[in-house]
Amino acid sequence: MTDLTGTTAIEFAVEPAPRRRMHPVAGFLGWRLLGGALTWLFASVLIFVATELLPGNVITVVLGRNARPEAVAALRHQLGLNQAVVPRYLEWLKGFVTGNWGFSSASLATGNPENVRHIVATYGANTLTLAAIAMLILIPLSLFLGTLAAGRRGWTDHTIVLGSLIAISLPEFVVGTLLIVVFFTLLDLLPPVSLVPPGTSALSNPRILVLPVLTLLLTNMAWSTRLVRSGTRAELSSDYVRFADLLGFPRRRLVWRLALRNGLPVSVQAFALIAQYMLGGIVLTEAVFTYPGLGTALVNAVIERDIPVVQAIAMVLAALYIVINILADLIVLLLVPRLRTAL
C-alpha cells in the first residue's frame, strides 16, 4: 500500500500463535478432581455435624461421671471442645488435610495417647488388603461367568443365574457363619477367626484371609456377574453383532471379542459399585471373623464415643468412594472413543 509520503510499504499479516489446548482427557480429569474435592468437603460438613449429634459425652467416657471439674476443663481444652462449632470444624478440617489428626479420645483415658492417623493406617491396611484380594479375584471371575452365561443359553445360563440369586439373598453374616461351619467345624481346614497380631501384616498368614475373602466373593460376585451378563447379552442383540454372525464369524469370537469388549464400560461401572459396596459391607464380614479392619475400628469407636477416630474413618471412606468413582469414569472414557471426541 502507498502511505502519505508516496513511498510504498509492504504489510505482513502475522497470525497470532495458536494457544495450546488442554488435552480433553486431562481437562475431564481436572474437572472430576475438582468436583470430587468439593464433594469431599461437603461430606466433611455432614460427618462433623453427625458426629457432634451422636448421643453420649466423650468427657464422661474418658474420665467417668465422678471426674473433678478441673480435670474435665483440662480435657475439654485438650480436645478443643471449649471452642465454638464453626472454629472447631475449621481447625479439625485443617488438621485433617495437613495430616494432624489428633489423638484418640479413648486412649486418653488409659494415659497412653494414640495417634488417630496411626490407628486408621493400621486398620486401613488390613481392610484394603482384604478388599484388594477379593476384587482381584472377583473381576476376572465375574467377567468369565457373566460372559459365559450370556453366550450360552440353557442350563449353563440357568445355573449361573440361580446361583447368583441364592448368593444375593444371603447377607454377609449368614454366608460367613455357614463357611465357618463347613470349613472349621466339619472339615477343620481353616481358622474360624482372622486375628492379625499387632505390628504384622495380614499377608503374613494367608490362611486367615481365605474365609473372609470367600464371604466377600460369594456376597458380591452375584451382583457383578448379573450386570456383566446383562451388558454382554445386550451387545449380542445389537445390529453389528448380528451382522457379524450373518457373515459367518465364529460364535466364540462374537461373544468373547466383540460383545465382552464393547460391554466393558458397563462392567467397569458395575465393578466400581461393587468396590464401594464392599468397603461399606466389609464391616459385617470383619465382625464375623474378628478381623481387625476399618469396620471393626469404626464399630469400636462408636461404642466408646471416640469421635476423632469415627470422623477420621468416615473421611477416609468418603475419599475412597470418590476416588473409585473418578477412576471408573476415567476408565470408561478411555474405553469408549466417542466419549473422548464429545469432550
DSSP strand count: 0
Secondary-structure-based class equals mainly alpha
The count of domains is: 2
Name of the level-1 CATH class of the largest domain: Mainly Alpha
How much beta, percentage-wise? under 5%
Q: Topology as H/E string?
A: HHHHHHHHHHHHHHH
Find the CATH superfamily of the largest domain: MetI-like
Helical stretch count?
Answer: 15
Q: Main β-sheet, in a few words?
A: none
Q: How far apart, in Å, are the first and last alpha carbons?
A: 45 Å
* Portion of residues within helices: over 70%
Global outline? flat
Poorly predicted parts = none
Radius of gyration in whole Å, from Cα? 28 Å
Q: What is the correct CATH architecture of the largest domain?
A: Orthogonal Bundle
Average residue pLDDT = 80
CATH fold-level label of the largest domain? MetI-like fold
Can you offer a commentary on this structure?
The chain is mainly α and 343 residues long. It is 73% helix and 0% strand. The protein is built from 15 helices and no strands.
Question: What are its keywords?
Answer:
2 domains; MetI-like fold; mainly alpha; 15 helices; 73% helix
